[in-house]
From TrEMBL:
GO biological process, one term: medium-chain fatty acid catabolic process
GO cellular component, one term: mitochondrion
Protein name: Acyl-CoA dehydrogenase medium chain
Keyword hit for Oxidoreductase: yes
Residues of the Acyl-CoA dehydrogenase/oxidase N-terminal domain: 43-131
Gene that this sequence comes from: ACADM
Annotated keywords: Oxidoreductase
Domain of life: Eukaryota
Recorded GO MF terms: flavin adenine dinucleotide binding; medium-chain fatty acyl-CoA dehydrogenase activity
Amino acid sequence: MLFNKALRGGVQSVLRLQSTSAAAVAATGSQNAPSTGFCFEMTDQQKEFQELARKFSREEIVPVAAAYDRSGEYPFPIIKRAWELGLMNSHIPEDCGGMGLGIFDSCLITEELAYGCTGVQTAIEANSLGCSHTWVQYRMSSTGDVLD
């Protein structure tokens, strides 16, 4: 019990330190200052992906989400459209044919898709679970190396 309290307090202190360090760098605008925290300021590319996912969610998911919930059908047309727009499997490395986006980028997309319907968002995002093994094998066979 005491250990859990100490651990929780330590983690909270570290998170608070990282948060304030990043905020200080953002407030001063100094790029040269060493940063020990996270910076959640979005790049232009991240803003574009967020807006694309937001528009897709509002225009293509929201209008049909209730119908898919009632019928229990798999949303194939939505999945196909999400694929066409590049909203699926964004984490696949560029050398494997993907966009190579990071975790934060994927979170931005996921958050916007979930606004429309968490069930459809899960259908879109769950596809990435099955492909990870495939691209690891592809990369290993094409380069002879393991992942860095």
